[in-house]
Design a protein that fits this description.
116 residues; HIT family, subunit A; five-stranded antiparallel beta sheet; 2 helices; 5 strands; 20% helix; 21% strand; globular; binds adenosine monophosphate; binds zinc ion
Length: 116
Amino acid sequence: MSENCIFCKIARGEIPSRKLYEDDEVIAFHDINPVAPVHFMLVPKQHLVSLLEADASHASLLGRMLVLAPQLAREQGLESGFRTVINSGKGGGQEVFHLHIHVIGGGNIPPMVRRS
Ligand code: AMP
Ligand code: ZN
């Protein structure tokens, strides 16, 4: 746990969130500033900064989160698919420095990388 981390505070219930899933290790809640009709994120309760800090000891937690993503996406109506995004570090555009997997879908999801 990290004292001033916003996602740790959400995991501890100190800041409200629109929660859609919780277990001992993982919480999922809707993004406060969604980029698509459905946009939520999976967050480990343990304060892990990003994938840059992950090692083999996190393999099962990260695997569980990836397996949860399609389950929760289906529950949110994303039957035809969804996008997952993990921004890692400043170089990856990360803004909240507690690892999270974005799950995005519904509406028009454009190709992620445009090639000219
Ligand atoms: P990233 O750029 O991957 O670090 O994404 C951070 C995401 O956290 C952004 O999409 C924000 O909209 C979202 N966010 C920031 N604060 C909150 C909050 N209190 N509740 C829900 N989502 C949040
Ligand atoms: Zn944290």
